[in-house]
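Fig. S4 source data, part A: sequence.
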Amino acid sequence: MSPLDDNFFQLIIDEDIEMPLEEKEQVSEVRELMELACSEAFTIAQRNKFLTDLRNDSNIIHMLGLSPDKLPSLVENNPVIALEVLLKLMETPESSDFLSVLVNMEVSVQSMDFVNR
């Protein structure tokens, strides 16, 4: 994978893209939540909001801004979110990149619990 591939799964929200304002706001909110999920544990309210959005919009997986190199931090901080995201990613061509990162992750209690699920 080349350095440019790290960003292959990120959607750039450009002002020129024809997208309703409400949808742009939702994409921005979901991307912010994903960034937060990779850096710290969610509160119950944040987890429920994210999971609801993820389950209600099948296209949202393409707007998360998640790249394979961020998966280990997501697993460590929010394993429930990581599992749901990975399950959605299984339906995409990029799934093998995420699984490869998962297989090569450093072993921790969180990662073992995640793989066990």
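Fig. S4 source data, part B ends here. Residues 20-116 form one domain.
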